[in-house]
Amino acid sequence: MHFLAFAGAAFLIAMTPGVSSVVIVRETLRGGRRAGLAATLGNETGVLAWALAAAFGLTALLAASQLAYDVLRVGGALVLLAMGAQALWQARRPGVAPLGAAGAAEGPPEGRVRAGRAYLHGLATIAANPKAAVFALSFLPQFVPAGADVPLTLAAFALIWVAVDTLWYGAVVWFAGGARHLLSRPSVKRRLEQVSGAVLVAFGVRLITETR
């Protein structure tokens, strides 16, 4: 029952829109489902790392150290600001290629480069966010039953969390990829870049200005 309750809670958290959702949808619209899945895998690599760190008590050190927390917080904010600025710059460029137009002419090497970049974007989004670490530290232990092996149970929760996240974001990528060709006009692409860029910048500003 504890594992089912945790899976349900993880699903509700995955459905809540956040910066990871923005990055994954943006990468899908820019590079197709392959890029979207790569961004999802990058995001889940970071989620798994933070969850396992929480399972073995490593994130408690981050939560206890204001300096370490602030360094990671500022670094994560700069990553989001850079990604947002890049999106806004892409939106200002004249003659932006329609979504999907480049994909038809891309060969496998270009596709791999785009997927690799999307993976790194997804990883950076979650790995550089100290709030994800603190959240994992406070969220996972609530579901550990009395008398259970705490590290082992938390590690199992980490895997469940990643599985639930991957299923949800996989569905998001599938639907966003299907809508990609409907959003092929350059004016629509620019608007999407503007919106995603503004959201990423807003997340970055909030992260760099807020305190614990």
Largest sheet: none
Task: Work out the count of structural domains.
Answer: 1
Low-confidence stretches at least 5 residues in length (pLDDT < 50)?
95-107
- Amount of helix: over 70%
- Strand and helix order: HHHHHHHHHH
Number of E-type strands: 0
Q: Per the principal axes of the C-alpha atoms, what is the gross shape? A: globular
Task: Report how far the terminal alpha carbons are from each other.
Answer: 33 Å
* Class derived from helix and strand content: mainly alpha
Give Rg in angstroms.
18 Å
GO molecular function, one term: amino acid transmembrane transporter activity
GO cellular component, one term: plasma membrane
Subcellular location: Cell membrane
Transmembrane segments: 45-64, 154-176
